[in-house]
UniProtKB/TrEMBL annotation:
GO BP, one annotated term: chemotaxis
Gene: fliL
Originating organism: Pusillimonas minor
Bilayer topology term: Single-pass membrane protein
Family label: Belongs to the FliL family.
Purpose: Controls the rotational direction of flagella during chemotaxis.
UniProt-annotated location(s): Cell inner membrane; Cell membrane
Protein name according to UniProt: Flagellar protein FliL
Main localisation: membrane
Length: 151
């Protein structure tokens, strides 16, 4: 009789232990089921990048004793379609702002990585300013130099 009670006690402890383990694994998501059905979020495919290529620029860069020609092709990466359309609408002003930023530099400065990175940051800062009379600002995430030649 004692042996039967001991066997039933051991079986009950094993059943409780297995049940608790299964419950923990199921709620934690380790068995492939989500931890909470409210937390299930379908993975969305990454958004496609939105680019706006600008026509090439050719400007003169002046140094102390010389002047050199900079030929550059720029593509803007924007955050949304509204920003791309906004920049297209104001393209003459966009090009003027880019030319102003390009000509502020010396040839030796923009030839280095630090100079090009700063130039890209300056172009973003200039292009994200409001365009009169529209108070909206385009959202530009990156300036990509697709051609960069100094002669």
């Amino acid at each position: 009789m004692k042996l039967l009670k001991l066997a039933l006690l051991v079986i009950a402890i094993m059943a409780v232990t297995l049940g608790a383990t299964f419950y923990f694994l199921k709620t934690s998501g380790m068995l492939g089921a989500p931890a909470d059905s409210a937390e299930v979020v379908e993975a969305k495919p990454p958004a496609k990048p939105i680019f706006l290529p600008l026509d090439p620029f050719t400007v003169t860069l002046r140094d102390n004793h010389t002047s050199r020609i900079l030929y550059v092709e720029i593509t803007l990466r924007v955050d949304d379609e509204a920003s791309r359309e906004h920049l297209r609408e104001y393209m003459p002003e966009v090009r003027n702002r880019v030319i102003s930023e390009l000509t502020k530099n010396t040839p030796s400065y923009v030839q280095g990585n630090e100079g090009r990175n700063q130039l890209a940051a300056d172009i973003v800062a200039s292009l994200t300013q409001p365009y009169f009379p529209n108070p909206n600002q385009p959202k530009i995430s990156n300036v990509l130099f697709t051609a960069f030649v100094i002669q």
